[in-house]
User: Which sequence fits this backbone?
């Protein structure tokens, strides 16, 4: 299942417009906050699909029966670009366990690249709901490799992928390799360049959020 949040939330579409706008992108705080907001909306929408239990809550005047989450999810993110999106999810799932993965494109001299995974820190994953965030779903290769990596740590009950902008090619690649996931995205773009960048996209989310990285 693929859910395009901007089709249902005018505010998400507005934030995506600002994230793409080169005249606004120089404001890093605003850029990070807009990504965080997309994560907050995604968290709210995902919460509607999660199971709950009824709990008695003691108030000053009596007892109220309330619906609460049956089990907290695991929030995973791909460093470093995923941090603002992860924070948006964490603002709502504030009791969730967290997982962090270092994944990046390791380029060769001929222009091709492979996905390198060098770090994983995660809680117990057996029978857990995983919400994995990465702002740009381009080729889908890093997300597929990350999911496969996490599956070795435990048999996941559900997997949700949250991104700001997704490319149709990346969505199809992800669905072919992981058919049982749900993808939540702020917008969907059609074009992917030969080097694996989304067009029109928004540029390098990590650089725009945290500053340009050394290419050494």
Assistant:
């Amino acid at each position: 299942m693929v859910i395009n949040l901007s089709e249902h939330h005018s505010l998400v579409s507005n934030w995506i417009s600002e994230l793409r706008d080169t005249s606004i992108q120089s404001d890093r705080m605003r850029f990070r906050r807009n990504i965080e907001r997309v994560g907050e909306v995604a968290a709210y929408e995902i919460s509607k699909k999660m199971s709950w239990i009824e709990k008695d809550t003691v108030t000053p005047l009596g007892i109220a029966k309330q619906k609460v989450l049956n089990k907290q999810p695991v929030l995973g993110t791909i460093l470093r670009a995923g941090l603002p999106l992860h924070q948006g999810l964490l603002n709502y799932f504030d009791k969730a366990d967290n997982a962090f993965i270092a994944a990046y494109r390791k380029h060769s001299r001929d222009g091709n690249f492979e996905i390198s995974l060098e770090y994983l820190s995660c809680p117990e994953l057996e029978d857990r709901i995983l919400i994995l965030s990465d702002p740009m779903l381009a080729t889908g290769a890093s997300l597929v490799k990350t999911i496969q990596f996490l599956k070795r740590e435990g048999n996941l009950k559900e997997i949700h992928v949250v991104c700001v902008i997704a490319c149709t090619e990346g969505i199809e690649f992800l669905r072919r390799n992981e058919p049982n996931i749900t993808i939540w995205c702020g917008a969907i773009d059609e074009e992917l360049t030969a080097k694996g960048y989304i067009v029109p996209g928004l540029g390098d989310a990590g650089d725009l959020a945290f500053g340009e990285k050394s290419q050494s």
Summary: The domain at 2-51+67-210 is CATH 3.40.50.2020 (Rossmann fold). The chain has one domain: 2-51+67-210. The first helix runs from residue 10 to 20.
